[in-house]
Automatic annotation (TrEMBL):
Record family assignment: Belongs to the fabD family.
EC numbers: 2.3.1.39
Reaction catalysis annotation: holo-[ACP] + malonyl-CoA = malonyl-[ACP] + CoA
Domain of life: Bacteria
Oxidoreductase among keywords: no
Key words, A-Z: Acyltransferase, Transferase
Catalytic site: 91, 202
Domain Malonyl-CoA:ACP transacylase (MAT) residues, every copy: 7-301
PANTHER family (UniProt xref): MALONYL-COA-ACYL CARRIER PROTEIN TRANSACYLASE, MITOCHONDRIAL
Full protein name: Malonyl CoA-acyl carrier protein transacylase
Amino acid sequence: MSKTAFVFPGQGAQAVGMGKDAYEAFESSRAIFEQADEALGFKLSDIIFNGPEDELKQTANTQPALLTVSVALLQALEGRGLKADYVAGHSLGEYSALVAAGVLSFADAVRTVRARGQFMEQAVPGGQGAMAAVLGAERGVLAELCAKISEEGNTVELANVNCPGQIVVSGSAAGVQAVVERGKEEAGAKRVIPLEVSGPFHSSLMKPAAEKLSGVLTEVSMSDAAVPVVANVTAAPVTEAATIRNLLVEQVYSPVLWEDSIRYLAQQGVDTFVEIGSGTVLAGLIKKIDKNLRVISVNSITALETL
């Protein structure tokens, strides 16, 4: 029997003006932007719609902005009666998935990801951490190279296992630079591309941020999930609120197992993935994981009407 998963994008999918058509077209979507502004105490919606881009790209703004746009589009989608059998989100997108599954209220989620972004920015001084996309390397071989470089004194780890041939590494600036220099020869990479990011996300260097986030999450009300959430950390379904809380803390310093998550969902009979939020990043990754899977990107009112 055909099953559907709602999936939600993470950092990197942002664009000035995203979600504005939903804000203008649907009262339910507009209410989400208004809730975000009220919960945060400043006009996040103005940054989302008008920029400037440099301000939107700041992690502490990007994270609540992407969450807000995803949930605003989700409201419009659910207004059409569409439901999911599973939900999942890429890194930050996991919070959108948790709102969709009824685990978190939107107001609590937007405040939490604002704090999460601030903690992640503060965890490592500017210039000391880095990330890079490694194309064409096998996961096991790349993991061995990262372990070797880390043993030499420069931390670098797998951060995002996105799809076959695309893995992001994260760690100290020197550790990531070593992967840039040695990735082709020692891990069989075709290219290693340094990324413009404000910190070494999803690496052990983020543990100070995770500790701070744990304190925030302790105060946040969570319910058991109405539909299974496939967690980044385990690539397995979870519904219990207490387990989800612990996994959100681990997620900050653990790799995002996106390829594994999509393969798990496909094994459960999910053949249709609805990407809800800005851009089409996840659609591209899912097609590289399994070209037979159907992916629909709901990133605008036009896309929603087509659906």
